[in-house]
Write a structure and sequence with these properties.
Helices cover 44% and strands 17% of the residues. It is an alpha+beta fold. Strands 1-5-6-7-8-9 form a six-stranded mixed beta sheet. A three-stranded antiparallel beta sheet has the order 4-3-10. Strands 2-13 form a two-stranded antiparallel sheet.
């Protein structure tokens, strides 16, 4: 659109589609065009979002802001982007999500696999990438020890290609890297449902060829995309302009303060001061004005003050507060400087104040669970091929727990006073550091068997049964 001031073009976040896997494999021209489009149109947006997350807010740090070169030109950046993404990351997976299967044997295998891959940290990184870039990518593979592994793939050089049907099924995943020691060389990895192709060529992508072909047995594209929302938009992406406004306002206020210290001295009156005398007065912080008589014989008047731009500081502070509140409102994150968030509050009270974030969390969870099931579906596929067992992915129970302060002690006090009772399993499930209550109960039973001191001194149930037999 002519004259548009949109930060990113429509091409910067489109999803790639192609007819079929078979048509894609032998079409090096199409593969090169996909990579070239990603490098030219999509990578710049991703890099800008990354810079804002790192605190290098591009708008305030670029160009010239002051016409006069001798005046102060402070560039204050405010890392709202990191605050937003880290808050949402902590809110969603500060308490690690739980993945439990109904079959205990399968549950043990998944638990061990998650431990090997440090799944808690891995899922947290995926959530963070989602929040920053609007999407995240995961690569599944078998390592040298023939173990199933999954890792986060860099968003800046990874994308998935889908078929052109309404289902949009993945037909290929691409990772590409430019050789850091030879910028003219590029390596492209194409993953299909059962093969891994490695292409090499020059950076202008005019002549790429297949260098190696490797099989894999995931029976699906082992690069999985995790979308943040329907439009694959980052959590702070739509407030970038507001962040720029806040940076600008704070920078202008800093410039005003510095300009005030270096203000120009204005002297009004009919007097003569040579340069040496003026320099001495400045060094001694003393200004002595000698007036000269006017043509009528009377003394003239002299006056001195500083010239500086008048600035409405209170109005500027109110303006910044409004921008900051808008940033928090449109990102559904709380402003911790707000007095309404002070003091000790229960989890339920916090939920009302985080209502918008709760809606966002629900939508993000649905999309994350969908991709997470794809992960375990591919893992199940390769386990079947390797004769390591199989399981029904639909029986997986994936649970997110929002990371909120909870006053469990008060709830338990009310419950027990009302005569309520809870099972040991339920009590254990309420502890955030217990991953699997059933496993913990089994451990307790085994410890009780090993330690006779934990056994009751007198078995009343056994004694009652003996008495019944004797009476008969």
């Amino acid at each position: 659109m002519s004259g548009s001031k949109k930060r990113f073009s429509d091409e910067s976040n489109i999803q790639y589609t192609f007819t079929s896997t078979e048509d894609l494999i032998g079409n090096t021209k199409a593969i090169a065009e996909f990579v070239q489009h990603h490098m030219t149109n999509q990578q710049p947006r991703l890099k800008v979002l990354q810079e804002y997350y790192k605190g290098n807010n591009t708008s305030i740090l670029e160009g010239h802001r002051r016409k006069e070169e001798h005046l102060a030109d402070n560039r204050a950046t405010h890392n709202f982007a990191k605050y937003v993404s880290q808050f949402i990351q902590g809110y969603m997976v500060g308490i690690p999500l739980k993945t439990v299967h109904k079959v205990e044997e399968v549950n043990n295998k998944i638990r061990e696999m998650n431990r090997v891959n440090d799944a808690d940290e891995h899922n947290s990184e995926l959530i963070l990438d989602q929040s920053i870039y609007g999407r995240a990518y995961e690569l599944l593979y078998r390592d040298k020890e023939d173990q199933i592994r999954f890792t986060v793939s860099n968003v800046l050089n990874t994308f998935v290609i889908y078929d052109d049907t309404v289902e949009m099924l993945p037909i290929g995943g691409i990772r590409y890297m430019v050789n850091q020691f030879n910028e003219n060389e590029i390596v492209i990895h194409l993953y299909t449902n059962n093969q891994h192709f490695i292409y090499k060529g020059n950076q202008n992508l005019e002549d790429i060829v297949v260098n190696e072909t490797l099989p894999h047995h995931f029976e699906g594209v082992p690069i999985i995309e995790y979308s943040n929302n329907k439009f694959r938009q980052g959590d702070f992406e739509d407030v970038l302009t507001l962040i720029d406004l806040y940076d600008s306002a704070q920078s202008d206020l800093a410039n005003y303060s510095q300009d005030l210290n270096d203000a120009m001295l204005k002297i009004v009156g009919n007097l003569e001061i040579d340069s040496d005398e003026a320099k001495h007065m400045k060094e001694t912080n003393l200004l002595f004005l000698r007036t000269e008589p006017n043509p009528h014989g009377s003394d003239t008047q002299a006056d001195a003050d500083y010239i500086y731009k008048k600035y409405d500081v209170s109005g500027s502070e109110a303006y910044k507060d409004r921008i900051a509140n808008d940033i928090h409102m449109f990102t559904a994150t709380p402003n911790m400087n707000d007095e309404n968030f002070g003091g000790v509050q229960s989890g339920e009270a916090m939920k009302y104040k985080l209502f918008l974030l709760e809606q966002k969390r629900a939508a993000k969870e649905r999309l994350f669970k969908k991709s997470l099931r794809d992960r375990y579906r591919l893992i199940n596929n390769i386990m079947k091929v390797a004769a390591e067992g199989e399981f029904d992915v639909n029986d997986l129970i994936i649970t997110f727990t929002e990371n909120l302060p909870e006053n469990i002690a008060k709830e338990m006090e009310w419950f027990t006073k009302a005569g309520g009772r809870l099972s040991d399993e339920t009590m254990l499930s309420m502890l955030s550091f217990i991953e699997n209550p059933q496993e913990e109960m089994k451990k307790l039973e085994e410890e009780d068997k090993k330690n006779p001191l934990n056994q009751p001194m007198y078995d009343f149930q056994q004694h009652q049964q003996t008495e019944v037999i004797e009476n008969e």
